[in-house]
Amino acid sequence: MALPVALQLYTVRDEMAADFEGTLKKVKEMGYAGVEFAGLFDKTAAQVKALCEENGLVPISAHVPLDDMAADPQGVLSVYAEIGCKFVVVPYLTEERRPGADGWEKTIADIRVCCEKAKELGMTMLYHNHDFEFVKLDGEYALDILYNTIPADLLQTELDTCWVNVGGENPADYVRKYTGRAPVVHLKDFVMKGKGGKLYELIGIEDEGDTAEEDAFSFAPVGSGCQDMPAILDASIAAGAQWVVVEQDRPAKGHTPMQSAEMGREYLKTLGW
């Protein structure tokens, strides 16, 4: 039983900025059933909702910076409730908010407040990991500490399977670990030829990581990298996921973002998804 497939629109962010309506139409034509937003590009909630309905796309979720949500939980989250998002997602932590930093405890407290407001508005908060949550604090991964601290009725997972792998864990096993708490799973593929490198510069974020050989790490269209996608898909079903979401932070050399999104969708079709 295949799950519906959505596209994280961060994959095609430049296209969204240039032609919001036309890009949504093309995403639907590729065979995506839903979308996950990463910015609304000055569109109102009513406009976004109408465009999704017009194109037959389910607005399943949105990535919203934690600082924005924490500063005005009601004002920010109500926009996504109006669009019809079932989920809203903490997408990334700035360095001062990360595990081991002074702001980590505040991060957990702020996420809890946002979770409570999301629940009040009829949505569920998810947390989208990178690899820095796989640092251990007192012998336990920070990611697990987050999920053990905030209960499942407030916070669910959006496991990014690329970063789980980079963090040192088997993505399929980790998805299964959160069975019953993994409504949305991020499908992301990559190629890693070496260690180190400024990984976050690949997603447009300044990175102070060690310089590595050229192309030591690169994102790849889903199905064309090193990830065991069939195992991840099986795990997503077993874990009770409602959606899988294709995301590619940057296109591989020689491909545009739209081509990358289409290649990932075509691969999933070959598996019956």
Radius of gyration: 18 Å
User: Going across the major beta sheet, what is the strand order?
Assistant: 3-2-1-12-9-8-5-4
CATH hierarchy, class = Alpha Beta
Task: Give me the CATH fold name.
Answer: TIM Barrel
Q: By helix and strand content, what is the structural category?
A: alpha/beta
| Anisotropy-based shape | globular
Total number of helical segments?
Answer: 11
Topology pattern, helix = H, strand = E: EHHEHEHHEHEEEHEHHEEEHEH
| Parts with pLDDT < 50 across at least 5 consecutive residues | 200-205
Give the number of domains: 1
Query: What's the count of strands?
Result: 12
What is the rounded distance between the termini? Answer: 8 Å
The description of the largest β-sheet is: 8 strands, parallel
Mean pLDDT rating: 94
| Fraction in helix | 25-40%
How is this structure best described in words?
This protein is α/β, with parallel strands linked by helices and 273 residues long. It has one domain (5-190, 220-270): TIM Barrel (Alpha-Beta Barrel). It has helices at residues 13-18, 20-30, 45-55, 66-71, 73-83, 104-120, 142-149, 161-166, 171-177, 229-238, 257-270; strands at residues 5-8, 34-37, 58-62, 87-90, 124-128, 136-137, 140-141, 155-160, 184-187, 189-192, 217-220, 243-246. Strands 3-2-1-12-9-8-5-4 form an eight-stranded parallel β-sheet. It has a two-stranded antiparallel sheet with strand order 6-7. Helix 5 crosses helix 6 and helix 9 runs parallel beside helix 10 (229-238).
